[in-house]
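Standup notes
- HV: blocked on the assembly model, inputs below
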Amino acid sequence: MQRTEISTLGEFGLIKHLTEKFKINNPSTLKGVGDDAAVLDYKDKQVLVTTDLLLEGIHFDLVYTPLKHLGYKAAVVNFSDIYAMNGQPKQITVSIGVSKRFSVEDLTQIYDGIELACQHYGVDLVGGDTSASLTGLTISITCIGEGEKDKVVYRNGAKANDLICVSGDLGSAYMGLQLLEREKVVFTANAESQPDFEGKDYILQRQLKPEARRDIVQALAEKGIVPTAMMDISDGLSSELIHICTQSNAGCRIYEDKIPINYQAVVMAEELNMSIVTAALNGGEDYELLFTASIDDYEKIITMEGVGIVGHITKPELGLNLVGREGEEIALKAQGWNSLK
Amino acid sequence: MQRTEISTLGEFGLIKHLTEKFKINNPSTLKGVGDDAAVLDYKDKQVLVTTDLLLEGIHFDLVYTPLKHLGYKAAVVNFSDIYAMNGQPKQITVSIGVSKRFSVEDLTQIYDGIELACQHYGVDLVGGDTSASLTGLTISITCIGEGEKDKVVYRNGAKANDLICVSGDLGSAYMGLQLLEREKVVFTANAESQPDFEGKDYILQRQLKPEARRDIVQALAEKGIVPTAMMDISDGLSSELIHICTQSNAGCRIYEDKIPINYQAVVMAEELNMSIVTAALNGGEDYELLFTASIDDYEKIITMEGVGIVGHITKPELGLNLVGREGEEIALKAQGWNSLK
């Protein structure tokens, strides 16, 4: 029998390959595979569904990830997918597989983190599954949310001349990860060493305890803005913009000097001799919102706190480009984080 | 820090311990943890949500489980939980973690099985997550279903004098598993040996390719019967009856000679010198429906194909008892399959 290595297809190629033969059977299924969340039609409300699988050694390293933070983050990244549809997360199911290495106290810490996230975002735990595992820790979370009819925002609605907007700053979570990895190497070499985290609290928090941008979704609603496309930035700005442009059949132009970057992340990048722009474009795990909006909403958007305009959507034939500080144009590439490579 | 081994709490104790501090925040959350599925209120329909986590080496053994069957079963066991709420499965999300040991062809087989199940039961795949794994295969499926308002059936509605009914037969899936385990041992000792499966197709199919009892849910609707309590039998009749009686604050009396058992399962049990009644009570994985119904529905129920009455609900002070062939009473114990032990 033929054997094709999974790495040859890549994550999105694999998902396409595996799911393209599935047919839609139910009128209540408005949107299936291919966005931040599925959309189900329940008359006056639309039900949003998203799911994430987190595996030890692939998605998290317990050497430097406190279990309570892990639980918090595992829940929040799912809430983020619901906000990215312009919806509100309402319920989650949590399934956990644990090896004998873990105690009840360990699991309690994970659930304490999940509970904190649920309280903070007003979400209910409604089910799950708990199982032994032969190796390591597995966390699978599914989140159900609600969207107002006609206000759910997909990835495919961006139009030429739309503004491209980003919340918060980008690249900080990735620089936090680089810092943790560096201190892990130091610690492995010398267990007496103390990690050097002074003045780096922001990038650490961005990596270990990210928040979902409920405030941005709320601000959009208050200002009467319905984005034309939206998604959360989990794999890096480049990769996500490519998704939006591909699904919207559009091009884009973003400006390097408009990409929002935090000072601590810049300092960390210099310390590690890395490019902070590359981290912002490809680092991932920022869980900020990337959205496009009609140029008619320009006046409203510039008054929004924590939102920056980084460029605009173009016709598809103009391609997907980053305009550098010297005015040079560089084609955007998806170098986002990909566990299957 | 204190360390409590997970095995000391057991699966249900652990779930209770981990989830009891969670509060319900949303009016749309009608029922959270503690039944076959969660129930969400969306006006005229109720949305049902259930999830299952399957881990290699714990829930399945790839030595004797074809990947397509595994995919089929992984989907069907979730549909079964929705039918057990008297609902209809509509959508699933599928998350899979795979190590490098697996090829695209392997994954395609799993998805072929899932697709077959989706087509057969009219369910849509609406999302998921695909990830690398350091070890083995992980499958996490969440199923969303719909229930008619006032017709969703919980575990807690059984009343004294209600009939206890079971669909199909019990213990066959467990005997199929025992057969597969025996042949695995034989094969490990001598790779030239051919498995002896003649006349054992039914119990093998019950283990490797179970079906969910959509037909029973449909028949109940056609006859105008709304069970007072219902669940699917995944852990064995004893364990499930204890759930229903505990949640309904009731006792029960079931009769050994009424427990439906298949001939192939009896033969297999004799070959292996095991008790088929024990297998039926504690074997699990039958995915039959266990339900209680008002005595007023007796005439309707006895005309239902594939449904047997095995006993009746009593007042709680009478306890939970099995009446043996000689009339002796034996207290029911939950010895169901438990991956955490």
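- HV (later): unblocked. Chain B has ten helices and 13 strands. The mean pLDDT of chain B is 90.
- Next: hand off to the docking folks.
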